[in-house]
Every structure is written in C-alpha cells, then in structure tokens.
Specification:
- InterPro entries: CTOP_PRMT1 (IPR052656).
- The protein is mainly α.
- Helix content is 57%, strand content 0%.
- The mean pLDDT is 78.
C-alpha cells in the first residue's frame, strides 16, 4: 500500500436535542395505549364490513369474472 493519510472530519451538531433524548421521546409516543379500545374495535368492525362489501362488488365485476376464467361473460361487458 502507499502512504495513505487519514483525515478526521468533525461535524458540528445542528440539533439541540441529543439522539438519546429524541429516541426516548419516539419510544414514549409509540408506547401510549389507544385512548379507547372499544372505539377502535368498533372502527375495525365497520372497516371489515366495508371491505367485505367492496370484495363482493369486485367479485361481481365482469372484468374480474373474465380474469377468473368464469364462463358466459360477454366481452362487450368488459369495455362498458
């Protein structure tokens, strides 16, 4: 190898908050439990019902039926 000189570069910190402090705050914010578990369960139930409804709608679309290979789907319906 040749004469390699290593140069130490020091970057001055621009943040007023230390990394430790920042990560401590992030962890605390993530660990807070939901305000009301019943409310979030209700929201999940509503979302699930909506998703099931959407899945049924998608299933009945002519283009989806054709892609699934179901017989008896007219090709004109695909482009309507």
């Amino acid at each position: 190898s040749g004469n390699m000189t290593s140069t130490k570069v020091t970057l001055k910190g621009t943040s007023t908050v230390s990394l430790n402090e920042r990560f401590t705050c992030m962890l605390k914010s993530q660990l807070q439990p939901p305000a009301d578990v019943k409310v979030s369960m209700q929201e999940q139930h509503v979302a699930s019902a909506r998703n099931r409804h959407l899945a049924l709608q998608m299933e009945n679309r002519p283009s989806v039926q054709a892609a699934l290979g179901n017989k008896g789907v007219a090709t004109e319906e695909l482009y309507s």
